[in-house]
UniProtKB/TrEMBL annotation:
Pathway entry: Glycan metabolism; osmoregulated periplasmic glucan (OPG) biosynthesis
Keywords in alphabetical order: Periplasm
GO terms for cellular component: outer membrane-bounded periplasmic space
Protein name stated in the entry: Glucan biosynthesis protein
Cell compartments where the protein resides: Periplasm
Single GO BP term: beta-glucan biosynthetic process
Originating organism: Candidatus Thiocaldithrix dubininis
Amino acid sequence: MKSIFYVITWLCLIYIGGYQAPLRAEDTGCFSYVKQLAEQRSAQAFVKTPMMQVDTGRITYDHYQHIKFRHNKTFWRAENLPFQLEFMHPGMHYIQPIELFTWENGQAHPIKFSKDYYDYSEVKFLNLENDEPRMGFTGFRILSKLGGEYAAFSETMVFQGASYFRALAQDQHYGLSARGLGINTSLEGKEEFPDYTQFWLEKPKADAKTFTFCALLDSPSTTGASRFVLTSGSHTDMEVETQLYPRQDMAQIAVAPLTSMFFHGENSTHRYGDYRPEVHDSDGLLVQQADQGWLWQPLAEVPYFNVGTIPSKQLKGFGLMQRDRDFNNYQDLEAWYHARPSVWVEPLEDWGSGQVKLMRLHTESDTTDNIVAFWQSDAGMQFKHLHYRLSWRSTDPEAHKLGKVTATRVTNKAVDSMPGHNNRIRFIIDFNQLPPLKEPPTANITINGKAQAKPMVVQENPYVKGWRVIAVLFPDSCAEPINLSVQLTSGGNPLTETWSYPVPQDLCVAP
């Protein structure tokens, strides 16, 4: 009878992830174990992690902001390790617990929730004494020395909620989010949000330059094992490798999804009465293709659900970028939009053919994310191994040597120089970082859709140390999408990236 009890107990521990199956001596990293666990879990019916049986609604936004992690309890601080951890308290809508383990020499050791980690001295009228046994962590922060060896430890990355995470490089403030996986992301009303339910955090050595950790991904459609290798500094880079084990077919697998916010910018015709000239976490989508070079598509807030597609046979990278770093263009002393990170996604294997998708939604607030970018492979369900690098940065990738778009402005209002043309849309595009030129560059225009264009005006713009292109578009029909592209060249050679702009439906007026 005892033997049966021990077998049942052992199987239960495997199921909840508390027992670490033996690993080969040469394979002591957490990734192999988590892949085994994810594969086993995929053969079982999905069971969502129960929400905490705690009235976390009593922990209001104000309470949550004043619950502080005790810095003397920061994990691995006493050992002065180069990467350290702080754990996220439950509260507000963060009520789904995660399990945390350290991983050392092929063995896992659970990190248990305790109120001793937190300072509640600034929280009034909140008593959690009877709730502690039912409480758990909802995420964690990674701290490192972003400013170099002699800098103080500061927050570098945070995981909290579904498979969301955010990170910072030196001198940045949090902005856009990344996710471990998206499912049916651009299929309106059908999106599925997988959860990272368990994490294994490999204890770094005293001289470690990287921090490795693993996570179990779970959802009704798939399980997955993810490994992350983090390097922090002036750029914060993280290698991500995920193996999926589908439970069922998925209509769409969104790889390396990025989620951001664009409320209004210099290309907006409506600013909702906001005193701030621009409000956005990102201002453009940058794409690099092996056969077509660099493409820049400015972001825009649209009054409708919209999904754009950029096909690629050999993607080199894509990202949501915050190029505008001038405080004067934001005037926000609290949000620091000028210091929001750009995130660049670089495939670390051949992703084959597919599309970069850009999803835009309507928003009337800067508190709501309305921009999503991701990769979708033409291989569909066969694309189960995801391997790429994420880079949080303040500049474009170093490989981008061409001239860049610095501003886009759009108008369809009548002006004195073109009276009577109510159906025209005028685009003013500024480029900079071009090489010195002996004569003005040539502006090449491409129109996809039913529209005509006037000959473009190309002017030197000393205020951006570059060139301005003015393109005037006359739609023939607004029934189908229209896309306008412009690139500056000299002698047939590209001088700049390609500027690409989907004509907004609300600005399109057919004759």
